[in-house]
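Give me C-alpha coordinates for this 316-residue protein.
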Amino acid sequence: MKKLPLGKTGEEVSALCLGCMRLGWYTEKETSIKLMDQYIEAGGTFLDTANMYGYGGPKMDVRTGEVSERLLGEWMKARGNRQNIFLASKVGVEHGDVPRGLGADLIEKECEKSLRRLGVETIDLYYAHADDRNTPLEEMMGAFDKLIKAGKVRYLGVSNFRLWRIVDAQWIAQTHNWADYCCVQQRYSYLRSKPGASFGNQIEMNRDMIEYAGETNMGLLAYSPLLAGSYTRADRELQEQYAGTDSEARLTELKAVAQETGATANQVVLAWMLQSDPPVIPLVAVSKPEHLAENLGALEVTLSDEQMARLNGASG
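Here you go.
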Protein backbone atom coordinates (compact mmCIF):
# COMPACT_ATOMS: atom_id res chain seq x y z
CA MET A 1 0.00 0.00 0.00
CA LYS A 2 1.13 3.54 -0.76
CA LYS A 3 2.61 5.35 2.23
CA LEU A 4 2.65 9.03 3.16
CA PRO A 5 4.82 10.99 5.60
CA LEU A 6 3.35 11.56 9.06
CA GLY A 7 4.15 15.21 9.54
CA LYS A 8 7.74 15.88 10.50
CA THR A 9 8.25 12.58 12.34
CA GLY A 10 10.20 10.92 9.55
CA GLU A 11 7.70 8.05 9.67
CA GLU A 12 5.71 6.92 6.67
CA VAL A 13 2.26 5.48 7.31
CA SER A 14 -0.36 3.77 5.15
CA ALA A 15 -2.28 6.13 2.88
CA LEU A 16 -5.52 4.70 4.23
CA CYS A 17 -5.81 4.29 7.98
CA LEU A 18 -8.17 1.61 9.28
CA GLY A 19 -10.53 3.18 11.80
CA CYS A 20 -11.39 0.59 14.44
CA MET A 21 -14.09 2.45 16.35
CA ARG A 22 -16.88 -0.07 15.64
CA LEU A 23 -14.85 -3.26 15.62
CA GLY A 24 -15.80 -5.91 18.13
CA TRP A 25 -19.18 -4.49 19.17
CA TYR A 26 -21.12 -2.84 16.34
CA THR A 27 -19.36 -5.18 13.95
CA GLU A 28 -19.24 -8.70 15.35
CA LYS A 29 -15.88 -10.05 16.42
CA GLU A 30 -15.45 -12.61 13.62
CA THR A 31 -16.12 -10.03 10.90
CA SER A 32 -13.92 -7.48 12.67
CA ILE A 33 -10.99 -9.88 12.61
CA LYS A 34 -11.58 -10.59 8.92
CA LEU A 35 -11.55 -6.87 8.18
CA MET A 36 -8.24 -6.34 9.98
CA ASP A 37 -6.74 -9.34 8.18
CA GLN A 38 -8.02 -8.00 4.85
CA TYR A 39 -6.47 -4.60 5.51
CA ILE A 40 -3.11 -6.12 6.44
CA GLU A 41 -3.15 -8.41 3.39
CA ALA A 42 -3.62 -5.28 1.24
CA GLY A 43 -0.40 -3.86 2.70
CA GLY A 44 -1.95 -1.61 5.34
CA THR A 45 -0.27 -1.11 8.70
CA PHE A 46 -1.94 1.97 10.26
CA LEU A 47 -4.73 1.15 12.76
CA ASP A 48 -6.62 3.73 14.79
CA THR A 49 -8.53 3.10 18.03
CA ALA A 50 -9.31 4.87 21.32
CA ASN A 51 -9.73 4.04 24.99
CA MET A 52 -13.51 4.55 24.78
CA TYR A 53 -14.34 2.88 21.46
CA GLY A 54 -17.01 0.29 22.14
CA TYR A 55 -18.08 1.59 25.50
CA GLY A 56 -21.86 1.56 25.68
CA GLY A 57 -22.30 -0.45 22.50
CA PRO A 58 -25.17 -2.95 22.18
CA LYS A 59 -22.92 -6.00 21.94
CA MET A 60 -20.44 -5.43 24.73
CA ASP A 61 -19.88 -6.03 28.41
CA VAL A 62 -20.90 -2.72 29.99
CA ARG A 63 -18.81 -3.51 33.05
CA THR A 64 -15.54 -3.26 31.16
CA GLY A 65 -16.04 -1.38 27.89
CA GLU A 66 -13.06 -0.47 25.71
CA VAL A 67 -13.88 -3.28 23.29
CA SER A 68 -11.85 -2.01 20.35
CA GLU A 69 -8.51 -1.83 22.17
CA ARG A 70 -8.95 -5.28 23.70
CA LEU A 71 -9.85 -6.81 20.34
CA LEU A 72 -6.82 -5.24 18.66
CA GLY A 73 -4.61 -6.55 21.43
CA GLU A 74 -5.96 -10.07 21.06
CA TRP A 75 -5.64 -9.92 17.28
CA MET A 76 -2.04 -8.65 17.30
CA LYS A 77 -1.05 -11.32 19.78
CA ALA A 78 -2.71 -14.07 17.74
CA ARG A 79 -1.13 -12.85 14.49
CA GLY A 80 2.25 -11.99 16.02
CA ASN A 81 2.31 -8.81 13.94
CA ARG A 82 2.81 -6.01 16.46
CA GLN A 83 6.16 -5.07 14.91
CA ASN A 84 4.42 -4.44 11.58
CA ILE A 85 1.65 -2.23 12.97
CA PHE A 86 1.63 1.55 13.40
CA LEU A 87 -0.82 1.78 16.28
CA ALA A 88 -2.81 4.87 17.26
CA SER A 89 -5.03 5.34 20.29
CA LYS A 90 -6.59 8.27 22.14
CA VAL A 91 -7.48 9.74 25.52
CA GLY A 92 -9.78 12.52 26.68
CA VAL A 93 -13.41 11.50 26.00
CA GLU A 94 -15.60 10.34 28.88
CA HIS A 95 -16.85 6.76 29.14
CA GLY A 96 -18.23 4.80 32.07
CA ASP A 97 -16.62 6.12 35.23
CA VAL A 98 -13.78 7.79 33.30
CA PRO A 99 -14.41 11.55 33.13
CA ARG A 100 -13.87 13.76 30.13
CA GLY A 101 -10.60 15.64 30.38
CA LEU A 102 -6.86 15.83 29.86
CA GLY A 103 -5.49 16.34 33.32
CA ALA A 104 -2.04 14.90 33.96
CA ASP A 105 -3.20 12.10 36.26
CA LEU A 106 -5.96 11.03 33.89
CA ILE A 107 -3.63 10.98 30.87
CA GLU A 108 -1.12 8.82 32.71
CA LYS A 109 -3.70 6.39 34.12
CA GLU A 110 -5.59 5.99 30.87
CA CYS A 111 -2.40 5.42 28.90
CA GLU A 112 -1.47 2.60 31.26
CA LYS A 113 -4.91 1.04 30.80
CA SER A 114 -4.63 1.29 27.01
CA LEU A 115 -1.20 -0.31 27.04
CA ARG A 116 -2.55 -3.24 29.06
CA ARG A 117 -5.63 -3.72 26.88
CA LEU A 118 -3.57 -3.53 23.70
CA GLY A 119 -0.88 -5.80 25.14
CA VAL A 120 1.94 -3.49 24.02
CA GLU A 121 4.74 -1.57 25.64
CA THR A 122 4.45 1.48 23.41
CA ILE A 123 1.66 3.23 21.50
CA ASP A 124 3.01 4.67 18.26
CA LEU A 125 0.63 7.63 18.06
CA TYR A 126 -1.34 8.92 21.05
CA TYR A 127 -4.04 11.54 20.52
CA ALA A 128 -5.56 14.15 22.73
CA HIS A 129 -9.07 13.10 21.67
CA ALA A 130 -10.99 16.23 22.65
CA ASP A 131 -10.07 19.59 24.13
CA ASP A 132 -10.19 20.23 27.87
CA ARG A 133 -10.53 23.94 28.62
CA ASN A 134 -10.39 23.25 32.37
CA THR A 135 -6.82 21.93 32.30
CA PRO A 136 -3.90 24.30 31.61
CA LEU A 137 -2.15 23.48 28.37
CA GLU A 138 1.14 23.37 30.28
CA GLU A 139 -0.17 20.51 32.41
CA MET A 140 -1.59 18.70 29.40
CA MET A 141 1.51 18.96 27.20
CA GLY A 142 3.82 18.20 30.11
CA ALA A 143 1.93 14.99 30.83
CA PHE A 144 2.13 13.90 27.20
CA ASP A 145 5.85 14.68 27.10
CA LYS A 146 6.33 12.53 30.19
CA LEU A 147 4.82 9.57 28.32
CA ILE A 148 7.19 10.16 25.42
CA LYS A 149 10.23 10.27 27.69
CA ALA A 150 9.09 7.09 29.46
CA GLY A 151 8.89 5.27 26.12
CA LYS A 152 5.18 4.58 26.47
CA VAL A 153 4.28 6.74 23.49
CA ARG A 154 6.29 7.59 20.38
CA TYR A 155 4.36 10.50 18.84
CA LEU A 156 1.53 12.82 19.80
CA GLY A 157 -1.58 13.73 17.83
CA VAL A 158 -4.51 16.04 18.46
CA SER A 159 -8.18 15.69 17.54
CA ASN A 160 -11.25 17.90 17.89
CA PHE A 161 -9.34 21.02 18.92
CA ARG A 162 -9.84 24.51 17.51
CA LEU A 163 -6.89 25.78 15.52
CA TRP A 164 -5.98 28.53 18.01
CA ARG A 165 -5.79 25.95 20.78
CA ILE A 166 -3.49 23.76 18.71
CA VAL A 167 -1.24 26.74 17.98
CA ASP A 168 -1.06 27.62 21.70
CA ALA A 169 -0.30 24.01 22.65
CA GLN A 170 2.46 23.77 20.06
CA TRP A 171 4.03 27.02 21.26
CA ILE A 172 3.97 25.86 24.90
CA ALA A 173 5.51 22.50 24.03
CA GLN A 174 8.25 24.07 21.94
CA THR A 175 9.00 26.68 24.60
CA HIS A 176 9.56 23.94 27.19
CA ASN A 177 11.39 21.69 24.72
CA TRP A 178 8.61 19.12 25.05
CA ALA A 179 7.20 16.84 22.39
CA ASP A 180 4.52 18.57 20.33
CA TYR A 181 1.70 17.36 18.10
CA CYS A 182 2.83 15.76 14.85
CA CYS A 183 -0.63 15.52 13.30
CA VAL A 184 -4.25 16.55 13.64
CA GLN A 185 -7.30 14.35 13.05
CA GLN A 186 -10.58 16.19 12.43
CA ARG A 187 -13.93 15.63 10.82
CA TYR A 188 -13.47 16.22 7.08
CA SER A 189 -15.02 15.27 3.76
CA TYR A 190 -15.41 16.56 0.23
CA LEU A 191 -18.66 18.31 1.05
CA ARG A 192 -18.41 21.44 3.17
CA SER A 193 -20.83 22.15 5.99
CA LYS A 194 -22.97 25.27 5.96
CA PRO A 195 -21.59 28.38 7.69
CA GLY A 196 -22.33 28.18 11.39
CA ALA A 197 -23.12 24.47 11.30
CA SER A 198 -22.16 22.49 14.39
CA PHE A 199 -21.32 18.83 14.93
CA GLY A 200 -21.27 19.11 18.70
CA ASN A 201 -17.94 17.97 20.11
CA GLN A 202 -16.66 17.04 16.67
CA ILE A 203 -14.53 19.77 15.10
CA GLU A 204 -14.47 20.09 11.32
CA MET A 205 -11.22 20.67 9.48
CA ASN A 206 -11.28 24.01 7.65
CA ARG A 207 -9.08 25.83 5.16
CA ASP A 208 -7.16 27.69 7.87
CA MET A 209 -6.21 24.43 9.56
CA ILE A 210 -5.15 22.88 6.27
CA GLU A 211 -2.95 25.88 5.46
CA TYR A 212 -1.45 25.87 8.96
CA ALA A 213 -0.64 22.17 8.67
CA GLY A 214 0.98 22.74 5.30
CA GLU A 215 3.12 25.60 6.61
CA THR A 216 4.24 23.73 9.73
CA ASN A 217 4.57 20.24 8.21
CA MET A 218 1.84 18.82 10.42
CA GLY A 219 0.12 15.65 9.27
CA LEU A 220 -3.58 15.76 8.41
CA LEU A 221 -6.03 12.92 8.99
CA ALA A 222 -9.77 12.85 8.32
CA TYR A 223 -12.46 10.96 10.14
CA SER A 224 -15.96 10.50 8.66
CA PRO A 225 -14.59 11.11 5.14
CA LEU A 226 -17.47 9.27 3.46
CA LEU A 227 -20.26 10.72 5.61
CA ALA A 228 -21.55 7.33 6.72
CA GLY A 229 -22.28 6.22 3.17
CA SER A 230 -24.20 9.32 2.09
CA TYR A 231 -22.28 9.66 -1.18
CA THR A 232 -23.40 6.30 -2.56
CA ARG A 233 -26.27 4.88 -0.51
CA ALA A 234 -29.85 5.85 -1.32
CA ASP A 235 -30.90 5.01 2.25
CA ARG A 236 -28.43 7.48 3.78
CA GLU A 237 -29.53 11.09 3.57
CA LEU A 238 -27.03 13.89 3.97
CA GLN A 239 -26.88 15.42 7.41
CA GLU A 240 -28.70 18.71 7.69
CA GLN A 241 -25.39 20.52 8.22
CA TYR A 242 -24.49 19.83 4.58
CA ALA A 243 -27.80 20.75 2.95
CA GLY A 244 -27.71 23.56 0.40
CA THR A 245 -26.57 24.70 -3.01
CA ASP A 246 -22.86 24.30 -2.25
CA SER A 247 -23.27 20.59 -1.61
CA GLU A 248 -25.48 20.25 -4.67
CA ALA A 249 -22.77 21.78 -6.88
CA ARG A 250 -20.03 19.64 -5.37
CA LEU A 251 -22.08 16.46 -5.64
CA THR A 252 -22.72 17.18 -9.31
CA GLU A 253 -18.99 17.56 -9.98
CA LEU A 254 -18.17 14.51 -7.88
CA LYS A 255 -20.56 12.33 -9.85
CA ALA A 256 -19.17 13.63 -13.14
CA VAL A 257 -15.59 12.80 -12.16
CA ALA A 258 -16.67 9.38 -10.90
CA GLN A 259 -18.25 8.64 -14.26
CA GLU A 260 -15.13 9.80 -16.12
CA THR A 261 -12.79 7.66 -14.04
CA GLY A 262 -15.01 4.62 -13.71
CA ALA A 263 -14.63 4.89 -9.94
CA THR A 264 -17.32 5.14 -7.29
CA ALA A 265 -18.08 8.47 -5.63
CA ASN A 266 -16.53 7.13 -2.41
CA GLN A 267 -13.32 6.26 -4.22
CA VAL A 268 -13.12 9.71 -5.81
CA VAL A 269 -13.57 11.37 -2.40
CA LEU A 270 -10.71 9.32 -0.92
CA ALA A 271 -8.48 9.87 -3.97
CA TRP A 272 -9.21 13.61 -3.84
CA MET A 273 -8.02 13.73 -0.23
CA LEU A 274 -4.86 11.77 -0.93
CA GLN A 275 -3.99 13.93 -3.96
CA SER A 276 -4.69 17.24 -2.21
CA ASP A 277 -1.88 19.60 -1.25
CA PRO A 278 -1.09 18.89 1.52
CA PRO A 279 -2.44 15.34 1.38
CA VAL A 280 -5.06 14.22 3.88
CA ILE A 281 -4.99 10.63 5.14
CA PRO A 282 -8.55 9.26 5.39
CA LEU A 283 -9.67 6.94 8.17
CA VAL A 284 -11.89 4.28 6.65
CA ALA A 285 -14.33 2.67 9.09
CA VAL A 286 -16.14 -0.27 7.54
CA SER A 287 -18.35 -3.13 8.68
CA LYS A 288 -18.22 -5.35 5.59
CA PRO A 289 -15.32 -6.76 3.53
CA GLU A 290 -16.83 -5.45 0.29
CA HIS A 291 -16.87 -1.92 1.68
CA LEU A 292 -13.20 -2.18 2.64
CA ALA A 293 -12.41 -3.53 -0.84
CA GLU A 294 -14.11 -0.50 -2.36
CA ASN A 295 -12.12 1.86 -0.14
CA LEU A 296 -8.86 0.13 -0.98
CA GLY A 297 -9.73 0.53 -4.65
CA ALA A 298 -9.40 4.29 -4.20
CA LEU A 299 -5.64 3.79 -4.13
CA GLU A 300 -5.82 2.81 -7.81
CA VAL A 301 -7.69 5.98 -8.81
CA THR A 302 -5.58 8.78 -10.29
CA LEU A 303 -7.29 12.13 -10.74
CA SER A 304 -5.95 14.50 -13.38
CA ASP A 305 -4.93 18.06 -12.52
CA GLU A 306 -8.00 19.22 -14.42
CA GLN A 307 -10.29 16.94 -12.42
CA MET A 308 -8.73 18.06 -9.13
CA ALA A 309 -9.22 21.69 -10.15
CA ARG A 310 -12.89 21.05 -10.98
CA LEU A 311 -13.48 19.25 -7.69
CA ASN A 312 -11.77 21.97 -5.71
CA GLY A 313 -13.54 24.76 -7.53
CA ALA A 314 -17.07 23.44 -7.38
CA SER A 315 -19.32 25.67 -5.27
CA GLY A 316 -22.84 26.97 -5.13
